[in-house]
Write a structure and sequence with these properties.
about 350 residues, about 45% helix, 2 domains, Nucleotidyltransferase, domain 5, binds zinc ion, binds 5'-O-[(R)-(carboxyoxy)(hydroxy)phosphoryl]adenosine, single chain, alpha/beta, five-stranded mixed sheet
């Protein structure tokens, strides 16, 4: 096998049309992201039909830009990796069909990548020495999973959310406070100006026998707090709500991650997904990791939220195992990382 494997990666599972060229799973030659946030903002969330249409409009340009920025031609590519789930079915199909077309026309192998696996692999891009095993907390708009990464491509789900995902809770609370979409970054920013001890919201750990999460109780507590004050005509301080809500989420996420590491006697902690760019989560996870003598790694913000480079990294490790897809590759909206 040649010693530099170049993967063209395509991601279109939600509201970013993205493409990247990644060398040997860790070296990003280009990472083009066309975000639809400005369009979906006016609706307060992602509108699936609009997302699919925008992906169709943008994908060709995004892939061309990825090749140009990497300064390579399609002949130099070794494989095409594409997200095939989980995500919005119509959105996924745009990327998959485009990747299939390129794979056929350019005679390059096709690789189907799980979006969550992509988020996890985003960590290999900047931390060149990171290797399994490690504990990864995946926190995104659709997922909250505590994953034991045994080896490349080998995952054990140790805990997951029983209701809302962490990012979903952030987005819903942001809407209730009157912030825009997506709410996560806005709550993060507002929380910096608020008092995290102002309101004592519940820390829902369910019970100590499980590493599962639940955020619906916390969400109700915040909504009740806002409505009760509204009814009494008492002005609330959005920054304090943001900071107090965030602290309740982050404390539970960090607590369960430390517990997972202890259970597996694993000394490396990793963060992944859009919420992994949250400043308080990063700060508290670092603090607790240092306290327990664990190594802690997280991607830069640009590799936390959806991007093509993470799919290129995950695709590389599948390439090494010759895990190729064929033309029957289909969108799998509820694709699981492991049983
Ligand atoms: O991974 P991602 O880009 O898309 C999914 O796969 O879902 O994650 C998007 C989620 C949104 O819910 C967004 O509000 C949240 O990540 N998010 C954040 C921050 N940045 C993005 N949540 C909290 N703090 C942030 N700084
Ligand atoms: Zn994502």
């Amino acid at each position: 096998m040649k010693d530099n494997i170049l993967i063209l990666a395509i991601e279109s599972s939600c509201d970013e049309t993205a493409a990247a060229i990644v060398e040997n799973g860790r070296n990003v030659l280009s990472n083009i992201i066309s975000s639809q946030i400005e369009i979906h903002k006016q609706f307060g969330g992602v509108v699936p039909e609009v997302a699919s249409r925008k992906h169709i409009e943008n994908i060709n340009q995004v892939v061309q830009e990825a090749l140009i920025e990497a300064n390579i031609t399609h002949n130099e590519i070794d494989a095409i990796a594409v997200t095939y789930g989980p995500g919005l079915v119509g959105a996924l199909l745009v990327g998959i069909n485009f990747a299939k077309g390129l794979s056929y026309a350019w005679e390059k192998p096709l690789i189907g990548v799980n979006h969550i696996e992509g988020h996890i692999c985003a960590n290999y891009i900047e931390n060149k020495t990171l290797r399994p095993p490690y504990i990864c907390l995946v926190v995104s708009g659709g997922h909250t999973d505590l994953v034991y990464v045994k080896d490349y491509g080998e995952y054990e789900i140790m805990g997951k959310t029983r209701d809302d995902a962490a990012g979903e809770a952030y987005d819903k609370i942001a809407r209730a406070i009157g912030f825009g979409y997506p709410g996560g970054p806005l709550i993060d920013k507002a929380a910096k100006m608020g008092n995290k001890e102002a309101i004592k919201f519940p820390r829902v750990v369910i019970d100590d026998d499980t590493l599962d999460f639940s955020f619906s109780g916390l969400k109700s507590a915040v909504l009740n707090y806002i409505h009760n004050n509204e009814q009494k005509n008492i002005a609330v301080i959005p920054e304090d709500i943001a900071a107090s809500f965030q602290e309740a989420v982050v404390e539970v996420l960090v607590y369960k991650t430390m517990k997972a590491a202890k259970l597996k006697k694993c000394k490396t902690i990793v963060l992944a997904g859009g919420v992994a760019s949250n400043s308080r989560l990063r700060e508290l996870m670092q603090k607790e990791s240092t306290k327990h003598n664990y190594e802690f790694t997280k991607p830069s913000s640009i590799f936390c939220t959806d991007n093509g480079a993470m799919i290129g990294s995950a695709g590389y490790y599948k390439y090494l195992k010759s895990e190729f897809a064929n033309s029957s590759l289909n969108a799998t909206p509820n694709l699981k990382l492991a049983k």
